[in-house]
Amino acid sequence: MRALIFAAVIALSGCSSMNPLNWLSPHKMEIQQGNYVTEDAVAKLKPGMTRSQVRFLLGSPLLADPFHANRWDYSYRDVKQGRLDKESNRLLTVYFNGDMLERVEGQAQPAERPALAASAPAQEVKP
């Protein structure tokens, strides 16, 4: 019986999936940092809006530089499995003239769509 167990251990030791280093790898979390600003929210911005209206639509900016008081930066980055996802690394910059919105530059996140498609026919409920 010991010879059979020894033979099984020798046979399995050559398998790469049985490598103990693969079993001992650390867990890598998904890390989302910053402001998730969608294209829908940016589309609602209009020149001449006040700072409080912009803050209501987009939220508080992640970066408010005291040396550039007329500029708010909304930064977002996503790290998955220890690697930076370059597709979701975005920077949106909002410029003000005094208290009024002047212009918006940069990229926003894609607008979120509902998971259910409207192509499915509606079911009629009979009483």
TrEMBL record:
Family: Belongs to the BamE family.
One Pfam family this sequence matches: BamE
Extent of Low complexity compositional bias: 107-127
Protein name: Outer membrane protein assembly factor BamE
Subunit structure: Part of the Bam complex.
Record key words, sorted: Cell outer membrane, Lipoprotein, Membrane, Palmitate, Signal
Entry superkingdom: Bacteria
Organism: Chromobacterium aquaticum
Localization annotation: Cell outer membrane
